[in-house]
C-alpha cells in the first residue's frame, strides 16, 4: 500500500516558527513531526510514501532523504511556490500513487492512530478517521451514523482527523464538483478536497470510524508546546 503525507502548507498560524522550517519538520518529542507518521506507516506495512511539497520545499529531502532509514521509499510531489490545497495536492500526486487505494495523512497532526487497523480498501470511495471535537472546532465536520456512514450534516458531528483511505476514483469528477472555484482553472489546479467528500457522502460512498485516542492538530505554537 502507498501513502500520501500532506506537507505543502505554509503554516502561517505557526509563524515565526515556520519562517524557516516547514511545519511537518518542527520537532515533537525529539523528532520531526512527520517522522512520527513515517514510522507508523512503515510499521503498518506501507512501502512507498509520497510527500507533497510547496512551502520551503527544499528543506524536506535533506531532512528525510530517500526514506530508507524507516524502510520506506519516499517520493516528493513538488507543487511549486503556491500549495495546491488538499484536493489539488492529491490530484497532482496521483501519478506517483498509482491506481490502487492509498492512505493519506495530514503532515501537521500528531496522533496514535494505528494505520494497520485501517481498511486496505474502503467500502466506497473513502474511509475517514474521525475524532472528538477539539476546542478550536467545536461544531465538528461530518456526522458518523450507527452503520459507519459519514454525512455532511447531522446531529452528532465529529472532527475529521486528517487521516483517510481513498480510491483515486474520488477525484474522477473533481471539475464538475468544484465548478468555478478560485484556483480550479489554474495549471496545475488548486482546490480543496472537502467538496468532493461531501458530494461522495451524498451518494453514501464515504464511511469512517471514531478514534478515541491521542490526536492533536498542531496548528499553533501553543498546541505544539503542549505536546512536550
Description:
- Helices cover 21% and strands 26% of the residues.
- It contains 6 helices and 13 strands.
- The protein has helices at residues 33-43, 60-64, 85-97, 174-178, 194-202, 221-226, and strands at residues 2-6, 27-28, 31-32, 48-53, 73-78, 102-106, 109-111, 126-131, 142-144, 150-151, 157-166, 206-211, 215-217.
- The strands form 3 sheets. Strands 1, 4, 5, 6, 8, 9, 10, 11 and 12 form a 9-stranded mixed sheet that branches. Strands 2-3 form a two-stranded antiparallel sheet. A two-stranded antiparallel ribbon has the order 7-13.
- The longest helix is centred in the middle third of the chain and has 13 residues, at 85-97.
- The protein starts with a strand and ends with a helix.
Please tell me the overall pLDDT: 95
Outline, from the CA principal axes? globular
Q: Count all strands and give the number.
A: 13
Secondary structure: helix percent:
10-25%
Characterize the biggest β-sheet. 9 strands, mixed
- SSE order, one letter for each helix or strand: EEEHEHEHEEEEEEHHEEH
Structural class of the helices, strands and pairings? alpha/beta
Low-confidence stretches: none
Q: Give the radius of gyration.
A: 17 Å
How far is the first residue's CA from the last residue's CA?
32 Å
Label this structure with key terms.
228 residues; 9-stranded mixed β-sheet; globular
Record the SSE blueprint.
Blueprint: E1 2-6, E2 27-28, E3 31-32, H1 33-43, E4 48-53, H2 60-64, E5 73-78, H3 85-97, E6 102-106, E7 109-111, E8 126-131, E9 142-144, E10 150-151, E11 157-166, H4 174-178, H5 194-202, E12 206-211, E13 215-217, H6 221-226
Amino acid at each position: 500500500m502507498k501513502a500520501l503525507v500532506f506537507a505543502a502548507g505554509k503554516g502561517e498560524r505557526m509563524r515565526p516558527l515556520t519562517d524557516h522550517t516547514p511545519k511537518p519538520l518542527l520537532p515533537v518529542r525529539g523528532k520531526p513531526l512527520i517522522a512520527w507518521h513515517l514510522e507508523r506507516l512503515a510499521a503498518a506495512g506501507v512501502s512507498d510514501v509520497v510527500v507533497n511539497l510547496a512551502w520551503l520545499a527544499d528543506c524536506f529531502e535533506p531532512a528525510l532523504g530517500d526514506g530508507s532509514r524507516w524502510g520506506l521509499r519516499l517520493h516528493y510531489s513538488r507543487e511549486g511556490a503556491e500549495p495546491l490545497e488538499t484536493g489539488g495536492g492529491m490530484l497532482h500526486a496521483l501519478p506517483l500513487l498509482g491506481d490502487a487505494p492509498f492512505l493519506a495523512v495530514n503532515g501537521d497532526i500528531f496522533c496514535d492512530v494505528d494505520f494497520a487497523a485501517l481498511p486496505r480498501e474502503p467500502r466506497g470511495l473513502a474511509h475517514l478517521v474521525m475524532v472528538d471535537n477539539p476546542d478550536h472546532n467545536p461544531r465538528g465536520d461530518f456526522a458518523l451514523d450507527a452503520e459507519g456512514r459519514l454525512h455532511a450534516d447531522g446531529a452528532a458531528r465529529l472532527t475529521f482527523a486528517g487521516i483517510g483511505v481513498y480510491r483515486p476514483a474520488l477525484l474522477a469528477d473533481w471539475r464538475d464538483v468544484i465548478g468555478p472555484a478560485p484556483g480550479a482553472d489554474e495549471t496545475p489546479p488548486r482546490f480543496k478536497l472537502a467538496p468532493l467528500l461531501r458530494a461522495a457522502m451524498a451518494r453514501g460512498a464515504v464511511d469512517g470510524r471514531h478514534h478515541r485516542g491521542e490526536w492533536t492538530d498542531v496548528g499553533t505554537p501553543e498546541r505544539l508546546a503542549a505536546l512536550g
